[in-house]
Amino acid sequence: MFPTQQEVYEWLKDVKDPEVPVLSILDLGIVRDVQIDEAGKISIKITPTYSGCPAMDVIAMNIRLALSGRDHTGLNIEMQLSPAWTTDWMSEDAKDRLEAYGIAAPRRLAGINDLFEAEISVPCPKCHSLDTRLISQHGATACKALYQCNTCQEPFEYFKCH
Amino acid sequence: MSAPIQSLLYTLQIADTILIHAQRLGEWCGHGPILEQDIALTNTALDHLGAARSLYQYAAEQYNSLSESEKQEVFSSPALSQVRVTRDQVEEDDLAYLRDSWDFHNVLLVEQENDDWAYTIAKCFFLDVFNFYFYTALQNSTDSLLASVAEKSLKEVGYHLKWSSEWVIRLGDGTLESQLRMQQAVNDRWAFTGELFLPSETDIIALQQSYGVDLAAINPLWEAKVSQVFQMAGIKIPDNQWMQEGGKKGMHSEHLGYILAEMQYLQRAYPGMEW
Questions:
Q1: Domains of chain B, residue spans
Q2: ipTM of this complex
Q3: Cβ–Cβ of A52/B148 closer than 8 Å?
Q4: How many Å separate Cα A56 from the centre of its chain?
Q5: Which of A36, A45, A101, A106 lies in disulfide reach of A87, CB 3.0 to 4.6 Å?
Q6: What is the mean pLDDT of residues A132-137?
């Protein structure tokens, strides 16, 4: 009995982003399509977040691992570049869980600020103060920036709008 | 050269330019003026490298579907020919690591030395403005892979352009010393900007076949953006209008040899090595 598309999506919920394990690849909008043919072969299309994101290879491997014990006749994972991934695809629920985890979420629509224009105020995920400052546009990964809260003094990462 | 060879060369003109640019930016790793900017450059390099990977994967497919005589015609790098003795199909890594300088088709601008911060900013700025308009136009390519890479890269290029524009302005509209250095860098690298818009035979055919960008159409856009930022920065457009060229044809400056020697060393010393 071959799996349905719905079942495969359920399995993919267990595949987490390796850097941000509170989010699944479905939460991030990385999974673009799931197809199962009559022979039971599964085809999954994923899209990279940033062009050079090194987590994509790990994610592809984790998809294979997640589906390895399951009932299917083969698995094909394909990279789909268009339409280009955007944080606009992240669900509100995913953003809430991201903040609960301690990373500030991308709350505005993706778009590049003007020259020398500052980012909108990013609330501290710990104390929720709006009095925070940018330390660096570049955090531990391409998708995150480094901030510090002026109220509670804690540093935190911000998942940038993209 | 045949149409399939020309399409492969078109992909490589783009991929080789951003690969060599990424490699040069990587030279700043650990040497940036402050940590923030060190990381900014390596993040930028990673963006370019990611786009390059997509393009090299495509280029490998394009190369693998050429006839044997076309394959002999397009590359003459001994290391690449040698790997094909045991393995007929090439992959992205073979193209990046086993071609010699004469088989690379990047523009000369990206080979130029990083020198000081102003020189690196000038190089990045000139390329970022170009990439912005080039990728915007490339989104309309009849080649769906090129169009999708362009769409994907354009978002990141927007950030690159903001970053380098801000630095041109900070340095130009900074202290007397920073302005002198920024102007000097612009003056010295200006002769490498022309090649971006000089159509190679490959560019001409790509445009005719509707998968390439009309460089003549984006040239004025580039000039306007550069003028706009220079005006904010108090930087003058250099008088010299003589331009360097040759990179797209595989005729490179002395720098590419050293860049490739460093980049390709491990694969050539330990063939087939993997992480």
A1: 3-269
A2: 0.89
A3: no
A4: 11
A5: A106
A6: 91
B152·A81 Cβ contact <8 A: yes
Query: What distance lies between CA B172 and its chain's CA centroid?
Result: 25
| Tokens of residue B84, six digits | 């094909």
> Which residues in A lie closer than 8 A to residue B40 (C-beta atoms)?
137-138
Contact B50 A51 (CB under 8 A): yes
Q: How many domains does chain A have?
A: 2
Q: pTM for the complete prediction?
A: 0.95
Helix or strand run (H / E) with residue B151: helix B144-172
Residue A141 pLDDT exceeds 90: no
Span B211-224, pLDDT tens digits = 999 999 999 999 99
Q: Do both A19 and A65 map to the same domain?
A: yes
Cα angle for residues B171, B172, B174 (degrees, 5° grid): 60
CATH (one of 1.10.150.110, 1.20.1260.10, 1.10.10.920, 3.20.20.140) for B3-269? 1.20.1260.10
**pLDDT of B150 higher than 80:** yes
- Compute the average pLDDT of residues B153-161: 95
Q: Are residues A134 and A79 in the same domain?
A: no
Residues facing residue A41 across a β-bridge: A74
CB contacts, 8 Å: B136 with chain A = none
Q: Which string of b and e fits B251-266 if b means at least 16 CB within 10 Å? A: ebbebbeebbeebbee
